[in-house]
């Protein structure tokens, strides 16, 4: 049993983004999507509505205190839709929504469609279009392990259908990488249309995985934003 004082706020995020070192008074709550790491035996989810349903169930026991949401890449879409779902249901909304490495949800999908490809063609597309590094592209065992969940993640994005709703009434911060091929500056700035509150867009050095290589800088920005809350 954990006898530490209950934090005043918690931050939910996708588990593959290691942000355990959050500010004092904030508890990090990692979420592991099906098909990844400790849930590798579970079938991956391939539709955003089902992902949001899974997230809502996982977070339900924690909804009695203030919280923020963080999502990277497809996780950004999932957390955005989770925030909208909570609003539709009249439930507590997050104090802040953080998204990174993802175009705004109302932007057309401009990347090659790859989720239907068999493994060999899929990994060739990763090499040609998605800045995939040699660590994966030169390791067939790693490819075999990553193909099902990664293919499912691209299917999540490729099949996502944005539906117009009123902007969120919560602060929204978006992060991008200077060399991230998955986003453009305009696509990141377009997130500003999804909130009527404070909006910030910050660009950090790195490719799509700047969330790992620029972990300390991103944590500082998260801490700065959360410190503005009452």
Write up this protein:
The chain is α/β, with parallel strands linked by helices. The chain has two domains: 9-109 and 163-227, Rossmann fold; 110-159, no CATH class. It has eight helices and six strands, in the order E-E-H-E-H-E-H-H-H-E-H-E-H-H. It has helices at residues 48-59, 74-88, 119-129, 134-137, 140-158, 185-189, 210-213, 215-227; strands at 9-14, 26-31, 67-72, 96-100, 172-177, 199-204. Strand 3 (67-72), helix 2 (74-88) and strand 4 (96-100) form a beta-alpha-beta unit.
Task: Quickly list its features.
alpha/beta, Rossmann fold, 2 domains, 8 helices, disordered N terminus
What's the structural blueprint in terms of helices and strands?
Blueprint: E1 9-14, E2 26-31, H1 48-59, E3 67-72, H2 74-88, E4 96-100, H3 119-129, H4 134-137, H5 140-158, E5 172-177, H6 185-189, E6 199-204, H7 210-213, H8 215-227
Parallel strand pairs: 1-2, 1-3, 3-4, 4-5, 5-6
